[in-house]
Design a protein that fits this description.
- The chain is mainly alpha-helical.
- The protein is built from five helices and no strands.
- Helix 1 packs antiparallel against helix 4, helix 2 packs parallel to helix 4 and helix 4 packs antiparallel against helix 5.
- It starts with a helix and ends in a 17-residue tail after the last helix.
- Major acute phase reactant. Apolipoprotein of the HDL complex.
Length: about 130
């Protein structure tokens, strides 16, 4: 737990070097909201293969907030990836399909954080309200 707290604190300090603390935290909280909305859309969407689009969209929206949003997106995305890999390993074993899916989700998240258009991952037939 101490190691995790130290890593979070160090990454926070590294991300706030040129920005003031208030705007950084405001952007981070707004970025968390963007990612939360994206993950909620993943859970409620009935479209197949739409998770990559929502991961890219959530990271894109968070990154548009500024450095705090980028920091929150990286932290939440990497935590989600590590937890998902841990659970997948114990539920499904060492499956190449699961690893491939995880890698493509990471690629979509990085694509969105870089500011590129997340519509690249939008599946055909997806409603416009997303």
């Amino acid at each position: 737990m101490r190691l995790f707290t130290g890593i979070v604190f160090c990454s926070l300090v590294m991300g706030v070097t040129s920005e003031n603390w208030y705007s950084f935290f405001k952007e981070a909280v707004q970025g968390v909201g963007d990612l939360g909305r994206a993950y909620w859309n993943v859970l409620t969407s009935s479209n197949q293969n739409s998770n990559r689009y929502f991961y890219a969209q959530g990271n894109y929206d968070a990154a548009q907030r500024g450095p705090g949003g980028v920091w929150a997106a990286k932290l939440i995305s990497s935590t989600r990836v590590y937890l998902q890999r841990f659970l997948d390993y114990y539920l499904y074993g060492n499956s190449s399909t699961v690893l491939e899916d995880s890698k493509s989700n990471e690629k979509a998240e990085e694509w969105g954080r870089s500011g590129k258009d997340p519509d690249r991952f939008r599946p055909d037939g997806m409603p416009k309200n997303y």
